[in-house]
Amino acid sequence: MRSQNYSTVKEFIFIGFPGIQKFRVPVFLIIAVFYILILSGNVLIIFFVWKDYRLHTPMYWLLANLSLSGLGFTTVIIPQMMFNIITKRKVISFMGCMIQIYFYFFLGTLDYILVAIMAFDRYVAICNPLRYSVIMSGWFTFQLAAASWIGALFSVLFSAIPFYLTPFCGPNVINHFYCDILPVLRLACKDTTTLKRLSYVSTALIVLCSLFLTSVSYIYIIATILRIPSSAGRHKAFSTCVSHITLALVFYGCSIFMYLLPEKIHSSGFYKGVALLHTVVTPLLNPFIYTLRNEKVKEVFKDALKRMDILAPQKK
């Protein structure tokens, strides 16, 4: 049980971005547009993978899981952030803050696992195409996806329990625009060195292992692409590969900057900018980077538009 002598904080107040008060309506509208694009992009991916038999393959099944995770990740952060931008009293309840932290890290951890698995899937498809259907069978892909969700759920849960038991008795002002573990831990009433080390080790383990597996997969993919005899084939494969690698660099770069570099950077405005990139821009890029260069997804999308008579040929 939480100690009644310590835990007097009932709500937290966000500092957010103090310099945008005069522009809060335009900023709110921009964030709203980003959020709508994130929602629509991910929902369309999930819908098409579910409805169209042409996308009933391991690659798209994993992409649908990543889209579902992305929907949850952004919904945990962006609506609260939009509310804080447009209102003067930027508050969140104590329990709401704890819930936000848990789901933020649960869905973030899930993203790292899924990105690594998707990189492995591309490695098998490009480097071992004849064995792809054997290695990445439907049942094995389902097991990988299920293990990702369950593993992320419980790995964060075990870390969250000691954090939840930490006493908070004031101050209650968070120098951030959402509940992140390190800014919140600064408000604790006891020494949190052990908790910070636990957070650092668990984050490093997840992020660096995912980065290592993703990097190894793409190294083998690039090596295989270089052996393609056709220059046109190499160019097409490289263009797709580079877009995926660029997105991965932004994704991992933000995480390393936020959670694996010295804590003194966390109070800087640049830190909040990176956090904004991590929670808004990267989730927006995910569905589009993974689909815009994919011919099968574009074909499915065009067929869907034709069925809606949007792209139906005009009668002469």
Would you kindly provide a written description of the structure presented here, covering whatever features stand out?
This protein is mostly helical. Helix content is 72%, strand content 3%. The chain contains ten helices and three strands. The protein has helices spanning 24-51, 58-86, 94-127, 132-135, 138-164, 181-185, 193-226, 231-259, 269-292, 295-307; strands spanning 11-14, 91-93, 173-174. It has a three-stranded mixed sheet with strand order 2-1-3. Helix 1 packs antiparallel against helix 2 (58-86), helix 1 (24-51) runs parallel beside helix 9 and helix 8 runs antiparallel to helix 9. It starts with 10 loop residues before the first strand and ends in a 9-residue tail after the last helix. Residues 1-7 have low confidence and may be disordered.
Specify the number of helices. 10
How can the largest sheet be summarized? 3 strands, mixed
What is the helix/strand order?
EHHEHHHEHHHHH
Physical arrangement of strands within the biggest beta sheet: 2-1-3
Mean pLDDT: 85
Distance between the termini: 75 Å
Find the count of extended strands (DSSP E, 2+ residues).
Answer: 3
Class from helix and strand fractions: mainly alpha
Low-confidence stretches: 1-7
- Helix fraction, binned, reads over 70%
Query: Taking Cα atoms only, what radius of gyration do you get, to the nearest Å?
Result: 22 Å
Topology:
Blueprint: E1 11-14, H1 24-51, H2 58-86, E2 91-93, H3 94-127, H4 132-135, H5 138-164, E3 173-174, H6 181-185, H7 193-226, H8 231-259, H9 269-292, H10 295-307
Parallel strand pairs: 1-3
Antiparallel strand pairs: 1-2
